[in-house]
TrEMBL record:
<keyword id="KW-0627">Porphyrin biosynthesis</keyword>
<dbReference type="InterPro" id="IPR003754">
    <property type="entry name" value="4pyrrol_synth_uPrphyn_synth"/>
</dbReference>
<comment type="function">
    <text>Catalyzes cyclization of the linear tetrapyrrole, hydroxymethylbilane, to the macrocyclic uroporphyrinogen III.</text>
</comment>
<dbReference type="GO" id="GO:0006780">
    <property type="term" value="P:uroporphyrinogen III biosynthetic process"/>
</dbReference>
<feature type="domain" description="Tetrapyrrole biosynthesis uroporphyrinogen III synthase">
    <location>
        <begin position="14"/>
        <end position="228"/>
    </location>
</feature>
<dbReference type="GO" id="GO:0004852">
    <property type="term" value="F:uroporphyrinogen-III synthase activity"/>
</dbReference>
<comment type="similarity">
    <text>Belongs to the uroporphyrinogen-III synthase family.</text>
</comment>
<dbReference type="InterPro" id="IPR036108">
    <property type="entry name" value="4pyrrol_syn_uPrphyn_synt_sf"/>
</dbReference>
<keyword id="KW-0456">Lyase</keyword>
<protein>
    <recommendedName>
        <fullName>Uroporphyrinogen-III synthase</fullName>
        <ecNumber>4.2.1.75</ecNumber>
    </recommendedName>
</protein>
<dbReference type="GO" id="GO:0006782">
    <property type="term" value="P:protoporphyrinogen IX biosynthetic process"/>
</dbReference>
<dbReference type="InterPro" id="IPR039793">
    <property type="entry name" value="UROS/Hem4"/>
</dbReference>
<comment type="pathway">
    <text>Porphyrin-containing compound metabolism; protoporphyrin-IX biosynthesis; coproporphyrinogen-III from 5-aminolevulinate: step 3/4.</text>
</comment>
<dbReference type="Pfam" id="PF02602">
    <property type="entry name" value="HEM4"/>
</dbReference>
Length: 241
């Protein structure tokens, strides 16, 4: 079994180590390059709570010296919450893995009268949390802490491996990564070759973005977390063994 991991550089190794421990060969091919964006940590002062919609945003928050670990923080899903919880954030609440679920969760569990919220995000967002929460009386400021820059093409060796059906599965943890993969595969004329692979997606939203490629099968993780993705890959490999 051979798996293509599409996570950004430096983020595939943890999952790759788990796969290696189960005898699964993997190759990392980052389709997005995460570029930190300078921002003023002073915007954290006086905020009632934080909204975090990606693990990359969580990691950028952790770069702030002396950042408060007890500040109420609402994470879009488990994968976003994990870096904060591991770093000792004591008040992290986790939504269902989508921006829509995060808006619904905040409406149910937070007090709009507590003060201004701060959304730490990438440059590209799928949904404006401030606009979604405003009708419920919340005021949300947004600060961009990173950009996800798409690669212009995949490594030539990886494209050859796809063309010769040398990957059994490919992993996708974001809709943006899935979209980049689809566009590159279509441009390279590798749609038919990709149809011999199984795609493992972290969520139904990501799975939907992958459909234009026509994978042999798309498997959605039971939970939008690294653990959920790991379990999904292991299920796929067990069935194909």
């Amino acid at each position: 079994m051979r798996v293509l991991l599409t996570r950004p550089a430096g983020q595939a190794e943890e999952l790759g180590a788990v796969l290696s421990a189960h005898g699964i060969e993997w190759l990392g091919e980052p389709l997005l390059r995460i570029v930190p964006v300078p921002w003023d940590p002073g915007v954290l002062a006086g905020k009632a709570a934080l909204l975090v919609t990606s693990a990359n945003a969580s990691r950028e928050l952790l770069r702030v010296p002396g950042v408060r670990r007890d500040l109420p923080t609402f994470a879009v899903g488990p994968a976003t919450a994990e870096p904060l919880q591991a770093a000792g954030f004591s008040n992290v609440q986790v939504a269902g893995g989508t921006a829509v679920s995060l808006i619904a969760y905040v409406r149910r569990h937070a007090d709009p009268g507590a003060g201004r919220f701060l959304h730490l995000s990438g440059f590209d967002i799928s949904l404006d949390l401030g606009a979604g929460l405003a009708p419920a009386g919340f005021t949300v400021d947004r600060v961009v802490v990173y950009r996800a820059v798409a690669v212009e093409r995949m490594n030539a060796g990886v494209m050859r491996e796809i063309a010769h059906a040398r990957f059994d599965a490919a992993l996708f943890l974001s809709a943006r990564t899935a979209a980049v993969f689809c566009s590159l595969v279509i441009a390279a004329g590798l749609v038919e070759a990709s149809s011999r692979m199984t795609a493992v997606a972290i969520s139904c939203k990501v799975a939907e973005v992958l459909r234009p490629v026509g994978f042999r099968k798309i498997v959605v993780a039971a939970s939008p977390s690294l653990d959920g993705v790991r379990d999904a890959i292991l299920r796929v490999t067990a069935k194909d063994a």
